[in-house]
Amino acid sequence: MHIHILGICGTFMGSMAVLAKELGHHVTGSDANVYPPMSTQLQAQGIELTQGYDPAQLDPAPDLVVIGNAMSRGNPAVEYVLNKGLPYVSGPQWLADHVLQGRWVLAVAGTHGKTTTSSMLAWVLEHAGMSPGFLIGGVPQNFSVSARLGDTPFFVIEADEYDSAFFDKRSKFVHYRPRTAILNNLEFDHADIFPDLPAIERQFHHLVRTIPSEGLVIHPTTEPALLRVIEMGCWTPVQTTGAGGQWQVKLLSEDGSKFEVMFEGAVQGVVEWDMTGQHNVANALATLAAARHVGVVPSMGIAALSAFKSVKRRMEKVAEVRGITIYDDFAHHPTAIATTLDGLRKRIGDAPLIAIIEPRSNSMKLGAHRDGLPESVVDADQVIWYSPANLGWDLGGTAALCTVPSIVSDSLEGIIERVKSQAQPGTHVVIMSNGGFGGLHGKLAEALQ
């Protein structure tokens, strides 16, 4: 079968393409912006990519068109599909019908930490010899690919609350029918499709409604929005993590790189790993709870986590030049920025820390998170904000409210010059964006040579 994917370089659609190829289909795809890591992964898989949405790519007609949720009416390829009556489907629906049917799905939902936690969970199951399938919105370094079918009943999926397609406004995760569900946290996000937090809570409750009574829901005790979701009705056993929960930790190092795990008051073992930050400790607890539900004893899960290598673009060290360390991070929400910087600060102590932030997500461009930004960067010594041409609000005003030195730059060259003038051996530079950031990481490393 020839499947053509519109919007193939999104992390979800690119991963779905890998699964379709593994099922034996002829897979092609197109996107407006073809950039790594997804583009390189797809090319390595032998999947043919077309830049742009010229309808010519749909002639001869494929057997099925899978339409990504970034596509909207007016897109030339979408209009061609509709006018010609070509068969089309959303990515989540295709996945539900052709991959997830009849499997034990372990879904990881939440505003933050989905990619990292689903990577941890897939790795813990792999380490335990369970060879799970998975679809993750990033590339876990323990696997070097973002998706695979796997040959056992178990399938780990990053369960996103974003909408499925222009013709299906339900959250992607309602298609997945998980038996084990992690609800990591819940804050307002995706301001382009949700008017407020209660609208997102309703979608999370739609997910909870689909989890069988023999399944398991895992959530932290510290998230008021998730407690409200569960209070709307839950027909499934629940395990809680964190303060007052069944799963708890005792930090053995301030930066979160070593901690003791307890389940129902009994010590299960100690995780010692390369990760930092309280958020990753929380991710680990949820992972251990989910893995236990499919039969992985906590001690085995703890051993796996100690060998966990994180995900590309999640505090990934990309270069060290003349004693200056450069990291690439996907954070694009004030909470994620704050927890990431806090974890790094605890690891590096008083070493100079420069944060470079691109407000690129749809919610950021709409200004939904701007009030939280000044507070999110307090652990940095200085911040460089990148102002893209299409930002609809005053980034300079936000920068002025920061308690640490902050400047706004509208060019990569300006950012590079600023870092060159400020960074000395021992400085840590974190580049935060949910896009390619114009290849800033490589350009900065080169300029610092």
TrEMBL record:
Q: What pathway annotation does it carry?
A: Cell wall biogenesis; peptidoglycan recycling
Q: Which domain of life is it from?
A: Bacteria
EC number per UniProt: 6.3.2.45
Instruction: List GO BP terms, alphabetically.
Output: cell division; cell wall organization; peptidoglycan biosynthetic process; peptidoglycan turnover; regulation of cell shape
List, for all copies, the residue spans of the domain called Mur ligase N-terminal catalytic.
2-99
Q: Which SUPFAM superfamilies match?
A: MurCD N-terminal domain, MurD-like peptide ligases, catalytic domain, MurD-like peptide ligases, peptide-binding domain
- Spell out the protein name for this chain: UDP-N-acetylmuramate--L-alanyl-gamma-D-glutamyl-meso-2,6-diaminoheptandioate ligase
